[in-house]
């Protein structure tokens, strides 16, 4: 395996799922070259007509057409303001981490009783240095010595930006990640500790809740998870056309996926997995509820979304986790160079747990995706 990391693709290039189109793959022998049928009422489920942009010719009473429009840009200096020359000087030598500006002769002078001068006098007093400051401690996290090279001449200093020094591995994960997700510990242990302490580890994403009535719904027997037997199976790296249901002694056809995912049907279903940092949200495009087709389409779209740079480099991702994800990416792509060039996808975060065996009802109206190693 090459030492070069896999390419990362901007996730904003990915489009939202098109429910009126077929699956985003070629036809298989199971369905031939055909596509899944579009929903019966594609006009349902819209959000209304968007507002039209205001016309440039329509002016408010505040700016009638007979008057001049207010000026734009920066205006000239006010006569009441005295122009003060900016202090200039050379950069001090001997320490690249500090930039010092010395006052130019005759133009600007630091008042002796100014606040920086008083602070410098306090810091240079013997009693102060013995009580609070040690001579071996640098004055800046980027300094190699204990004092500024030109502190005797000027207190107007500027150090390197602290934000730029923060390592990529120390940054928080993106806000799209689940706040209770952690790559550094077992998902089960982390969830148990969080539920006992009622703590939110990272205030990243906004509060997202599933359907409040999910405790009263029953999942479709095709996808209902059972620990005693496998009710369904789908490799999340492949097209949903390859799904198999135990309740069907035959191959799945497009009409089987027109059934509702639960009873009574819900307009929105939110899915998650302890091994997956993101939520998967399925919204119905019909006036009743989410179908199996819409559920699998939402899962497929979420799994095939390319990750961002922030997903790969943050304080939840150590080197071992990145290597495991890169191995999963290489195993999924194989020798397909075109797919390799598209970079890591979200499904690679599941690593070996890409076998979907069913769905169970979780807390707060969520639905858990039960996955296993393949």
Automatic annotation (TrEMBL):
Matching InterPro entries: DUF6699
Domain DUF6699, residue spans: 234-365
Pfam families: DUF6699
Domain of life: Eukaryota
Protein name (record): DUF6699 domain-containing protein
Low complexity bias locations: 137-165
Organism per entry: Phanerochaete carnosa (strain HHB-10118-sp)
Transmembrane segments: none
Span list, region Disordered: 104-182
